[in-house]
Specification:
The complex is a heterodimer of chains A (128) and B (175).
Chain A: H1 3-8, H2 14-30, H3 36-54, H4 60-83, H5 91-125
Chain B: H1 15-36, H2 44-66, H3 87-96, H4 99-119, H5 121-135, H6 141-162
Helix pairs in contact in B: 1-2, 4-5, 5-6
Classes of the chains: A mainly alpha (128), B mainly alpha (175).
Chain lengths: 128, 175
């Protein structure tokens, strides 16, 4: 029922949304700890994000690092406290490491195959 | 047999990548050196992350120098049925925006945040709204004022009255 009116929001001209969005950004950043320093940190990341867009650097890993970094550190401490260094030999950990290695291996194979097929494509395009 | 001259592929160093690799190496290196002064378990994670980051940054920098890659020009997506902004459209807009357009956009953002700091949220919101809508969005006075009043009312009711969240008060708090 609300879908049609909501989709019409996407047709609103960009400049009309700017004041509203800027205010929401500022309020969201400020309200985390009622400090203007958080707004400045947000602006620093805005500059970083614009740089990533401008020069084609990926933003997703940056976001993942920001979100997962704290979680990773917390559970690293927990694992170290509970198992000592033996957590490195736990089966779930080894399984996840194996999955990561497989992802890299398959990706490398795919890239190598793509590079091998590129010269073949160029040879076909060369006129006789 | 005809001679088919293969076109020369010129690979040049892409300066932003070089700068990024260098910056990452320096930032992570500084973090590593800082973390060396921390004791025990508190230093494990920072050392691991910053050490790995510095090595990868350095590897990226060296790769950019020794094996520079080609950067294809970003082509804008066709504007037709799809009205949504895509990443490629944004990137094209960023790469082709003139210096003046950049300066104007940054000036508005800077002016907003300076006004937010000096005047506080409830004063800067309507002032910025009217100024931006009039001069940048080229909207009439009536629409700008109505927009500003509605926006102020929504902000005040939602965040001031209902949620009672403290907002930036500015240097001269009046509300």
């Amino acid at each position: 029922m609300l879908l049609k009116p909501l989709t019409r929001l996407t047709h609103i001209s960009g400049p009309l949304l700017v004041p509203f969005l800027l205010l929401l950004l500022a309020i969201g950043a400020y309200s985390s700890s009622n400090s203007f320093a958080d707004v400045l940190v947000m602006l620093a990341f805005v500059v970083l994000g614009i740089g990533c867009l401008r020069w084609d650097w990926p933003r997703v890993p940056l976001l993942l690092g920001l979100v997962l970094g704290r979680i990773l550190e917390r559970y690293l401490f927990l694992s170290n406290s509970v198992f000592g260094s033996g957590w490195l030999l736990r089966p779930y950990f080894l399984g996840i490491v194996g999955a990561i290695v497989l992802v890299f291996v398959f990706h490398a194979r795919r890239v190598r195959r793509a590079k091998r097929s590129e010269p073949n494509r160029e040879k076909e395009e060369v006129p006789a | 047999m005809s001679d088919t001259a293969t076109p020369e592929v010129t690979r040049k160093i892409y300066l932003p990548d070089l700068v990024a690799g260098l910056l990452l190496t320096l930032v992570f290196g500084a973090a590593f050196i800082t973390a060396l002064g921390w004791n025990g378990k508190a230093a494990i994670f920072p050392l691991a992350v910053s050490g790995l980051g510095a090595l990868l940054g350095l590897a990226y920098f060296v790769r950019c120098v020794l094996r520079p890659g080609r950067r294809d020009a970003v082509q804008p997506t066709s504007v037709g049925d799809d009205d949504e902004d895509t990443d490629e459209d944004l990137q094209y807009a960023f790469e082709t925006a003139s210096g003046r357009e950049w300066a104007v956009a940054l000036a508005y953002v800077l002016a907003f945040f300076v006004a937010l700091y000096v005047l506080g949220l409830y004063l800067s919101a309507p002032l910025f709204t009217v100024a931006y809508l009039r001069h940048q969005a080229k909207v009439s006075w009536v629409v700008s004022v109505i927009y500003a009043v509605v926006l102020f009312a929504v902000l005040y009711l939602a965040f001031g009255v209902v949620l009672q969240l403290p907002m930036p008060p500015g240097l001269f708090p009046v509300l």
